[in-house]
Amino acid sequence: MTMKTTKYSAIVLAALVACGAAHAGVSAAEAAKLKGGELTPLGAEKAGNQAGTIPAWNGGLTTPTPGFQNGGRRPDPFASEKPTLQITAKNMDQYADKLTDGTKAMLKKYPDSFRIDVYPTHRTAAAPQWVYDNTFQNATRASVQETAAGPITKGAYGGIPFPIPKNGDEVMLNTQVRWRGSAWNQQSTGYQVTTDGRPVLVHQVNVDNVAPYYYRDGKAENFDGAYWMVRVSTSAPAIRAGEAILGHLLIDESKTATWVYLTGQRRVRKLPNSCCDTPHPTSAGIVTFDEIETFATRLERYDWKLVGKKEMYIPYNSNRILLPAKDTDVLGPNHLQPDHVRWELHRVWVVEAALKPGQRHTSPKSRYYVDEDSWWPVLADRWDANGQLWRMPFSIPVAMPDLPGVVGTAWGTYDLLSGTYFVAELMNSAREQYRLLPDGLPEKHFSPDALAGDGVR
């Protein structure tokens, strides 16, 4: 080896150490499965299961129900169906291998009220063709880079980064940028339900969202890393009216920033840590940042182990939760009313998170269940420092053929030890529900200055 070659190798090695190791995407031959019929365009197994209880994917649900208007109540596309199976505390042992630990704990804790109504499985997940095209390109061009903020995605844009995942990091990074549209507005409420079954309104909010990662005309080389920007305005309860929160979520989560406006202080403040087990302001501190929509924020505190893929009963296509006229119709004393939650059998990626040595978190161990079709983290189990199963984060996905896609709406966390629970993004009492914004919103709308300008004084 020449002196020149040795010097060049040392420079390359130093660069790799400084930037962190990068794990490349799959080969072109493997990526071809996304177009060859073996996998769906987003990476799920296209075929059904041998038992016939999970059908083959045939393109998803892309035809809106006649009469539906954007922002209105999305009707239940399967309203005429009846449950094919009802799982209760009495028969749960027969189906234990297809239930999460949290689901089994809820059945045992509330044997007289909590149940799983299982309906026929429909693989409604879909996305526009341009999202499929970007996902195909991402399969070979995207990589995972190790950084001080943990593993992050590099080189992906406009689609699922790792449609053929090889490890837990890639699965969880896929959930970060799951397809839900490029711009939308939500009007919703959040409640804490106390141990005695009393619902307490925590927030009534108007939420504007944009996903620059999914701007159709964008390009990977021009993407600045902001995959989601969200602005929340609170109108109730009275003690919190006028509060606001602004979030810029970046692929490199160490650069993610969150600002809050508090009416008592009359100023916008940047939160020092909008991550992990920090209590989230919109929930009045009841849930943590990394429990938003089952899972959110950075990965560096845990080792992420891909356990594999499994058939599990999960909430899915639960448009029925949108139909009651009032939020209180959905809220039960200890859990959501089972009549309004549809469960189906789906294949999920199972990923376990174990706290790394030297890191701290209120939940040293967690397990996540990620839908293979939509990449939505639908359910999770979380254990406390004493090894007790403590919390069960959940999301309730609904079919949105007008998008098209499967998108989580109501989400929350059951506290299995205290008996309380929190749920957000209930839209039953709202004037509008989930409005797609085809023209988007200007990015200046998501600036701290704009937040300050609209603050209630």
UniProtKB/TrEMBL annotation:
Signal peptide: 1-24
UniProt name for this protein: DUF1329 domain-containing protein
Domain of life per record: Bacteria
Organism field: Variovorax ureilyticus
Keyword annotations of the record: Signal
Coiled coil: none
Database matches in Gene3D superfamilies: Lipoprotein localisation LolA/LolB/LppX
A Pfam cross-reference name: DUF1329
